[in-house]
């Protein structure tokens, strides 16, 4: 390719692309605003842009304009401290910051080693740098191109299966998953619905107002959404879960509440992109996938940890890698798995393992168990340091409305003692109103 | 808290643990060995007991590292102000 492609937004196409509250931005409006920005980038010779905004319109116009003008784009989370954004801007010699107002920045000219990469024909290929959602320290920055991001979206099947879909944006618009949803809507002539308030009620109100039929979110998002959504209030066609391993109880509850929706859980990482999608309503993935490539991806277990080999892998890190690359193009994940019958279950991240007197406890497995008990709508399992055993299992649980806390606690603990190993039983147990959720939509 | 108060707290917490395990509640005194087999609690129960004592007394005698104890009395001593 000699010309960098943009998004398929036609002038004269008045279809709505982004909706927030009662306001909509159409595809042609985004095209017009993106044209203006691309023109400015070309005229002023701007090659390095950063977008810091939670408005999908800003993120999409930055992605489109930069791709067409051949400018590199950094997508920064809005919850980064201001000083960190400033530091990253300086370091990457950002010349224009996109947000509610676009601000030019004065910087020295880029040095040779920071010039954009070129494709096979020597034409510049603009890069998109995306940041991990780590909550502490400097974010890790992964390198993509619009072409590679679009390729991932096209192969994810969401595009073909959901033409003109109405997508609720549950993810941060600046994160990998949020950008995926926005690009899916852009490619499939869909609508991106943005909640006015990022709360379970706010998500439900937005979904109802715009008759959303497609929602992609973390399992944690879905459990809170189930609490806020009355039965029969929404007719969903596509339910997608990602970002965290999903447990069977959550899949079952979604199936019960939205019986006609297709339920998909995806395994993705910043490094490898979307690795695989599972549609059969069961947690984990079929064991047979370890033996033959599936969806173009090879999977294997080494020391019970999942390793993946995918043609969609990102192009590298600008900062140090979060996941090591192995020989032969394999990526080592920190996700621990176990084989149960003909299924591979994901137990959770290795670094979240709780060591109770030498016995390993996987919080995700215990959360899945708790979520399968009657009256439990959300659960968070964590390590409580202990001088005798090193650690004990702690659990915070949200109960369904109408449950009596002390009786429910007794019943839940009795089931734990009867069905879990003694070291797996939560020794610190709290009934709470809500469980803290990070901006990434995962349990904090 | 006085040692006797703490011993009573230990007695109550141990009784709760035993009841949850469906075992007979045993009366203990300062010389009762916690993991000696008389009580029927295991090391994880003991870990739980220590955690709950911290909540009851507001003190964590193990914050600087593990301190050895065998009997209920020795454990109670750690929490005496």
For the biggest sheet of chain A, the summary is:
8 strands, mixed
> According to CATH, what is the topology of the domain at 195-349 in chain A?
Rossmann fold
How far apart are the termini of chain A?
A: 42 Å
* Mean pLDDT over the residues of chain B: 88
Provide the low-confidence segments of chain A as ranges: 116-123
Q: Which series of helices and strands of chain B comes N to C?
A: HHH
- What's the architecture of chain B, going by CATH? Orthogonal Bundle
- As for the number of domains of chain B, it is 1
| Backbone structural class of chain B | mainly alpha
**Bulk shape of chain B:** globular
Which two chains form the greatest contact, residue counts included? A-B, 14 and 13 residues
β-strand number of chain B: 0
Explain briefly what this protein structure is:
The complex is a heterodimer of chains A (444) and B (81). Helices cover 27% and strands 28% of the residues of chain A. Chain A is α/β, with parallel strands linked by helices.
Question: Key terms for this structure?
Answer:
heterodimer; A: 444 residues; alpha/beta; Rossmann fold; 8-stranded mixed sheet; 6-stranded mixed sheet; 24 strands; globular; B: 81 residues; Non-ribosomal Peptide Synthetase Peptidyl Carrier Protein, Chain A; 51% helix
Summarize the structure in words:
- The complex is a heterodimer of chains A (444) and B (81).
- Chain A is α/β, with parallel strands linked by helices and 444 residues long.
- Among the domains of chain A are: 195-349, Rossmann fold (3-Layer(aba) Sandwich); 353-431, GMP Synthetase, Chain A, domain 3, CATH 3.30.300.30.
- In chain A, 27% of the residues lie in helices and 28% in strands.
- Chain A contains 11 helices and 24 strands.
- Chain A has helices spanning 27-44, 56-69, 82-91, 146-155, 158-161, 176-187, 200-209, 219-228, 248-257, 363-371, 405-419; strands at 16-20, 23-26, 48-52, 72-76, 96-98, 103-104, 127-131, 141-145, 166-169, 191-194, 214-217, 238-241, 262-269, 273-278, 285-286, 298-302, 305-309, 331-340, 343-349, 354-356, 359-361, 376-386, 390-399, 428-431.
- The two termini of chain A are 42 Å apart.
- The model of chain A is unreliable at 116-123 (pLDDT under 50).
- Chain B is an all-alpha fold and 81 residues long.
- Chain B has one domain (3-79): Non-ribosomal Peptide Synthetase Peptidyl Carrier Protein, Chain A, CATH 1.10.1200.
- Chain B contains 3 helices and no strands.
- In chain B, helix 1 (3-20) packs across helix 2 (43-57) and helix 1 (3-20) packs across helix 3.
- Classes of the chains: A alpha/beta (444), B mainly alpha (81).
- Chains A and B meet through loops of A and helix 2 of B.
């Amino acid at each position: 390719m000699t010309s960098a492609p943009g998004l398929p937004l036609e002038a004269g196409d008045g279809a709505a692309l982004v909706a927030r509250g009662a306001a909509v931005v159409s595809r042609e409006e985004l095209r017009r605003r993106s044209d203006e920005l691309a023109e400015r980038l070309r005229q002023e010779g701007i090659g390095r842009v950063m977008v810091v905004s939670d408005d999908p319109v800003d993120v999409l116009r930055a992605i489109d304009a930069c791709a067409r003008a051949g400018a590199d784009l950094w997508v920064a989370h809005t919850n980064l401290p201001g000083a960190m954004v400033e530091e990253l801007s300086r370091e990457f010699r950002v010349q224009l910051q996109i947000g509610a107002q676009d601000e030019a920045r004065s910087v020295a000219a880029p040095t040779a080693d920071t010039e954009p990469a070129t494709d096979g024909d020597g034409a510049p290929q603009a890069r998109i740098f995306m940041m991990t959602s780590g909550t502490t320290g400097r974010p890790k920055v992964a390198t993509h191109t619009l072409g590679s991001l679009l390729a991932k979206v096209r192969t994810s099947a969401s595009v073909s299966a959901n033409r003109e879909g109405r997508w609720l944006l549950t993810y941060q618009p600046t994160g990998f998953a949020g950008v995926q949803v926005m690009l899916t809507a852009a490619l499939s002539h869909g609508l991106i619905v943005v909640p006015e308030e990022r709360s379970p009620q706010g998500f439900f109100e937005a979904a109802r107002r715009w008759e959303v039929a497609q929602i992609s979110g973390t399992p944690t998002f879905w459990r809170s959404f189930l609490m806020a959504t009355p039965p029969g209030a929404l007719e969903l066609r596509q339910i997608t879960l990602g970002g965290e391993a999903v447990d069977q109880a959550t899949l079952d509850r979604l199936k019960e509440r939205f019986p006609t929706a297709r339920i998909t859980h995806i395994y993705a990482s910043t490094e490898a992109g979307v690795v695989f999608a599972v549609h059969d309503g069961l947690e984990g993935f079929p064991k047979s996938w370890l033996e033959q490539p599936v969806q173009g991806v090879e999977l294997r277990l080494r020391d019970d940890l999942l390793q993946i080999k995918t043609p969609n892998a990102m192009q590298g890190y600008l900062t140090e890698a979060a996941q090591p690359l192995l020989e032969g193009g394999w990526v080592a994940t920190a996700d621990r798995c176990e084989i149960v019958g003909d299924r591979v279950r994901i137990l959770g991240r290795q670094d979240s393992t709780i060591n109770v007197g030498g016995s390993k406890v996987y919080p995700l497995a215990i959360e899945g168990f708790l979520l399968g008990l009657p009256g439990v709508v959300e659960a968070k399992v964590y390590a409580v340091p202990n001088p005798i055993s090193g650690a004990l299992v702690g659990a915070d649980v949200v109960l369904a409305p109408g449950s009596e806390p002390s009786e429910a606690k007794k019943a839940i603990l009795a089931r734990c003692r009867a069905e879990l190993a003694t070291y797996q039983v939560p020794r610190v147990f709290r009934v709470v109103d809500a469980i803290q959720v990070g901006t990434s939509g995962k349990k904090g | 808290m006085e040692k006797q108060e703490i011993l009573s707290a230990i007695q109550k917490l141990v009784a709760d643990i035993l009841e949850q395990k469906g075992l007979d509640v045993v009366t203990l005194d300062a010389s009762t060995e916690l993991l000696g087999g008389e009580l029927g609690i295991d090391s994880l129960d003991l870990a739980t007991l220590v955690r709950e004592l911290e909540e009851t007394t507001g003190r964590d005698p193990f914050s600087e590292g593990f301190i050895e104890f065998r009997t209920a009395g020795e454990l109670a001593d750690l929490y005496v102000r």
